[in-house]
Amino acid sequence: MFGTVIKFNRKTVVVLTEDRVQWRVPPDILTPIKDATPKQRFVYANEITQE
């Protein structure tokens, strides 16, 4: 799953997915990925390469 972080608390992060579903997850399971603009497709964590 990937999406945009819309709320960040110490114990819970709220992530909004592309289909407008909100997920509450612990912050330690999140991994930052490359920023994607609406004109680009989403970038999955396994597609990121070190530059």
Explain this structure to me?
By secondary structure, this protein is mainly beta. The chain has one domain. It contains no helices and 3 strands. It has strands spanning 4-8, 13-16, 22-25. The chain has a 3-stranded antiparallel β-sheet with strand order 1-2-3, with no helix packed on it. A hairpin with a 5-residue loop joins β2 and β3. The radius of gyration is 12 Å and the shape is globular.
SSE layout:
Elements: E1 4-8, E2 13-16, E3 22-25
Antiparallel strand pairs: 1-2, 2-3
Q: Low-confidence parts, pLDDT < 50 over ≥5 residues?
A: none
- The geometry reads as globular
How many beta-strand elements? Answer: 3
Proportion in β-strands = 25-35%
Instruction: Give the tally of structural domains.
Output: 1
Kindly summarize this structure in a few lines.
The protein has strands at about 5-10, 15, 20-25. The protein has about 50 residues and is mainly β.
State the main characteristics.
51 residues, three-stranded antiparallel sheet, 25% strand
